[in-house]
């Protein structure tokens, strides 16, 4: 570091150890990128090596020189403050051993000057530390808020705003999770409100919206929480009945049909199907995780149910008219 006399050795054992420890730390951190070294312990070790180095240098000096001690202290404070500008603990750990050593070597003769030299950068680093922490806290709060907003937006983008049911995107998301879990047989139900165009035309679009909301709530209530109810199109809904057998799937479809009927939403323009809002339902099993095939089959069953007179349920494999 500082050579007090031209006759003394430049490289002492502690200064070689400082180099070795620094290189070992660099290599270790390079190999173990995820594990952080204990910076306080390392800075204390290096601080003690510096103190040892100063002791060796002073012990070989013919006359004790205060200037050498002050320059050595300033050099250590300089290195400490640029290395640990954001870490006050590491700064103290690296400077304390040399400060104590210098006070001891000087036998307290110039202690105010020595303490002044260490207190000044200490105050600077403390202020910097406080400002840094305030900035960190602000950034953390901002990040938390952004993540919260992102989650809300993500949830909203998966739901249909009118009915609160899943939209197609939300359905895909749930389907991926269900398929990843594997087990069990699943059934797809496609439901369509009968003569809904006539309902809209005669009762108005806003009454149509209300009817859609009531029908959605009834469907949601008629199935289990693990089933996925989706608004598939305008007046079309899709239900994925998970881990269920054919008989129970048909029973569930019938329960939905009956409950929509029991809502008794007046509809006088159904071409004699009923005097209230009804639904037709097509059912198909979900085989080999092929949702497109299941939807095609359910759609064709729904089409046949409509042709047969509506307010009815048809399955792609079996027939159940009501
Ligand atoms: N109020 C309202 N109506 C909608 C909405 N989405 C779609 N519709 C209406 O739903 C009606 C669907 O009519 P169609 O597809 O002809 O079928 P339908 O009259 O129900 O006849 P069938 O299905 O054969 O029984 C159209 O009039 C659409 O305008 C919506 O969000 N709100």
From TrEMBL:
It comes from Buttiauxella brennerae ATCC 51605. Its EC number is 2.7.7.65. PANTHER family: DIGUANYLATE CYCLASE DGCM-RELATED, REGULATORY COMPONENTS OF SENSORY TRANSDUCTION SYSTEM. One of its GO terms (biological process) is negative regulation of bacterial-type flagellum-dependent cell motility. The lineage of its organism: Bacteria, Pseudomonadati, Pseudomonadota, Gammaproteobacteria, Enterobacterales. The keyword Nucleotide-binding applies. This is diguanylate cyclase. The chain crosses the membrane at residues 12-31, 37-56, 68-94, 114-131. Signal peptide: none annotated.
